[in-house]
Specification:
With 275 residues, the protein is mainly α. The chain contains 10 helices and no strands. Belongs to the binding-protein-dependent transport system permease family.
Length: 275
Amino acid sequence: MVSVESPPVERAAAPAPRVKLLKTEVSRRTAWILRVASVAVPFAIWWAVSGSGIVPDRFLPAPPQVWAAFTDMVASGDLQNDLLASLGRIGAGFGLAILISVPLGFLMGTVGWAQPLFEPIIGILRYLPASAFIPLLIIWLGIGETSKIALLVLGVVFFNTLMTADVVRQVPRRLLDVSATLGAGRARVAARVVFPHSLPGILDALRVNAAVAYNLVVVAELIAATSGLGYRITRAQRFLQTDKIFAILIVIGLIGLTIDVTLRVVRARVGRWSV
């Protein structure tokens, strides 16, 4: 009797394992809860520690003390004057850095000879701490506004130049080829293709470096200044007024957040097409 072998039974393929993405989306409600918690939890810890008496008030003032110090500075007008002085220096220094770094970075990203000419020296200078130039700036420019603005320029211009050049070099080659095929000249391609495509990335670089300028202006005002938020912190430190220091630090953080959100909104509007 001949035995007939049954055909092998094919097993169903095991389902592919689900891979969790590194970036997952959360609901809008969850996102807002997390945002509120990121502020509320540290604030609650601060209030609890300061109210427990573990740390003396002169070292860690309670939130009501900080609020009282804030209202006192607002009532006297000192906070408004110092804030305007700091913002004026940021506007001048950061604006001048933009006027230098964006054209230079655009040149390095579009013209072949510009990158090997400028990148080595800029790459060296960007690793020099801007604060290390403070003694030289005081010697060269004095203790007035010029040295403070120059410090902001030095702290921003080199980084922003290289970041702008990197963004410009990322323009897809096919866009340049299509433009050349349609008869566009180099100047027209740079103005109508390269710059619009690079603008969202340039704004991202400015948003990052705006934080650098904002931090440096406080550093500049800690030394040889008669106005500004950094000067007000130094003055409060002399008299151990930690409540005023905390109030000024919170104002610095809120103004910095406002600048960041503003640049984010501008970037989102001009770069809706980009991911």
